[in-house]
Amino acid sequence: MEYTIKQIADIANISTRTLRYYDQIALLKPAKISDAGYRLYSEKEIDRLQQILLYRSLGIKLSQIQSIIDDPIFRTLDALQEHQRNLETEKEKIDQLLATVRKTIQYQKGEIQMTEAEKFEGLKKERLNENERLYGEEIREKYGEEMVERSNEKFMNLNQEDYQKMQELEDRLFARLNQLAETRDLETPEAKEVYEIHKQWLSYTWPNYSAEAHKGLAQIYIADERFANYYNNRAGKEVVSLLHDVVVKYAKD
Question: Contact 30/5 with Cβ under 8 angstroms?
Fold first, then answer.
């Protein structure tokens, strides 16, 4: 069966302009062009469009999507199973946030009492789950299951004041890193302040501080592009190597 561009757009709930753009960048070409010059699509193109839209829903760039689905080893079933896992993770995060919102509404109505921990439980769980999804395997391999679980427990038990302080410390860290990036001079008080802020920030989740563990974490930052990208993107410039050098210089038990 063949479909016109308008029919495909209606089925997928997207614009014909989007489909024309996908054709232009060779992401989704029509099966053929009719004698009258109309784009015509088959079931094969519909399946490909589904994959494109699923990846787009996960925030993946079009150029990356094209590389993924044009890879010779790409398998539709594997991709769908990956989509399912990602969507289930997102659903869990949303469910946790919804639970917190519902409790907060009841609290505001005077129907229930909420502890400080409960008020921030959803937000903390969302952050914890995201960190686990992105970095859990590497951190457990580096520091062990017990330390990671103790760290997670400490983070989940933060009260409102400490959670806010932790967020403020992270903001200060990036502000100081941006300043230090202008000179990259590790001998300055600003450099030592970057180390002290980062150490203090870690204290909100680490059961015990260790200079060696701190330096090991800094090494992970530069060795793993996901960590590096987080710091560099947040700062808007390359700062992860600077943070690493500061920690190596000043971290002492």
Answer: yes
d(CA 242, CA 186): 9
* Three-state SS at 104: helix
Give the residue among 51, 61, 10, 7 at the shortest CA–CA distance from 28.
51
Burial of 214 (0-12, 13-18, 19+ CB in 10 A): buried
40 - beta bridge partners? 4, 32
Q: What's the rounded Cα separation, in Å, for the pair 225 and 238?
A: 12
**Across 193-222, average pLDDT:** 92
The SS3 assignment for 70 reads coil
Q: Is the pLDDT of residue 151 over 80?
A: yes
Is the overall model pTM greater than 0.85, yes or no? no
Q: Which residues of 120-157 are buried (b: 16+ CB within 10 A; e: fewer)?
A: bbbebbbbbbebeeebeeebeeebeeebbebbbeebee
Q: Decide if 186 contacts 193 (C-beta within 8 A).
A: no
- Give residue limits of the domains in the chain: 3-69, 75-158, 159-253
Q: Tokens 């952050």 map to which residue? A: 127
CA dist 18 to 9, 22, 68, 210, Å?
8, 6, 20, 53
Q: Per DSSP, what are the bridge partners of residue 41?
A: 3
Backbone phi, then psi, for 75, in 5-degree steps? -125, 125
- In 3D, which of 140, 135, 154, 144 has the Cα closest to residue 221? 135
Angle at Cα 102 formed by Cα 99 and Cα 108, nearest 5°?
140
For domain 3-69, say whether CATH 1.10.1660.10 is its number. Answer: yes
**Average confidence score pLDDT of the chain:** 85
